[in-house]
Amino acid sequence: MKMLRRFWKDESAPTMPEYALMVALVAIVAIVGAQLLGTNILARLNQIAAAIGP
Hints:
This protein is mainly alpha-helical. Helices cover 83% and strands 0% of the residues. It has helices at residues 2-9, 16-52. The radius of gyration is 21 Å and the shape is rod-shaped. The termini are far apart. The model has no long low-confidence stretch (mean pLDDT 89).
């Protein structure tokens, strides 16, 4: 917990590991968001297909 507080109060410019962490977090959020969106779109298209019929 102390490390997190020290990191939060640190006002120096971000270093390479911090940039790498930020990029990794953004990538994870983008991947999870794309998967959720894809699943929702697929479910909606299946509902539409079922309503239209064979």
